[in-house]
Design brief:
alpha/beta, 2-enoyl-CoA Hydratase, Chain A, domain 1, 4-stranded mixed β-sheet, about 45% helix
Length: about 260
């Protein structure tokens, strides 16, 4: 059994059901490695089955979020005959609870890939972004060639991926790579406040289904999406989440939704 060094990703849960995960390799600027990946995925897997966790915030230790692959390992990838390790991205991709990125600094390459797996992204006003691949003699990896065009459009995605250029937080907001830009010192707190609102006021079961609906419907027809939504809504009609949502609204009190099962 592989031992996972979970100190590479720090975990802290508040009393409202918000889990904050911190990529914790500041001495390597949080450069991505197999060990960091395993620790991050292990934390998410634990959070998936923990009913006390209702939303997750991801950030980086020090002054960066994740600037891409750890440069110490890039030489290994350049060796003749080297292969990219098999990676199952279903853990972040299909995570059923909201993941909010608090991008506190440099976010590039595989770091950008994993930021895009988050459902909502907050960026520090000083953050810098890049796909980087073409400038390292690489191609788009981990499905970003599928994800990015659906977020920001074909031409914008081709611009960022072909050029590998650096762009700032203001342009990231304009393009739709992130949805919020806040002062650097406030980015983590802003993401946590947003996550806390979801944890306190939104049905975990409903949010899980909504996220699945969005990802399933993005490539299908309206008729397919309508049919699936009709079946999904029927699961909630008469159920505990809908009853609690209506009761809390009419009684003008905070909802008490059951945890995700």
């Amino acid at each position: 059994m592989t031992q996972v060094a979970t100190d590479l990703v720090l975990a802290a849960t508040d009393g409202d059901g918000v889990l904050t995960l911190t990529l914790n390799r500041p001495e390597r600027r949080n450069g991505w490695s197999a060990e960091l990946r395993d620790a991050y995925y292990a934390r998410l897997t634990e959070a998936d089955t923990d009913p006390a966790v209702r939303a997750v915030v991801v950030t980086g230790a020090g002054t960066t979020f994740c600037p891409g692959a750890d440069t110490a390992h890039l030489g290994d990838l350049a060796r003749e005959g080297a292969q990219l390790p098999e990676t199952d991205v279903s853990v972040p991709r299909n995570f059923p609870k909201p993941i909010i990125a608090a991008i506190n600094g440099a976010c590039a390459g595989v770091g950008l890939v994993h930021a895009l797996f988050c459902h909502v992204r907050f960026a520090a006003d000083t953050a810098k972004f890049a796909t980087s691949f073409s400038r390292r003699g690489l191609v788009a990896e981990y499905g970003i060639s599928w994800t990015l065009p659906r977020m920001i459009g074909l031409e914008n995605a081709l611009d960022l991926m072909l050029s590998g250029r650096t762009f700032d937080a203001a342009e990231a907001k304009e393009l739709g790579v992130v949805s919020r830009v806040v002062p650097r010192d406030d980015v983590l707190a802003a993401a946590q406040d947003y996550a806390r609102d979801l944890a306190r006021n939104c049905s975990p079961s409903a949010m899980a289904v909504i996220a699945r609906q969005v990802f399933e419907d993005i490539d299908g027809s309206f008729d397919e999406a309508f049919a699936r939504s009709h079946a999904d809504v029927n699961r909630f009609i008469g159920g505990p989440d809908l009853r609690e949502g209506l009761a809390s609204f009419l009684e003008k009190r905070p909802p008490r939704f059951p945890p995700l099962t």
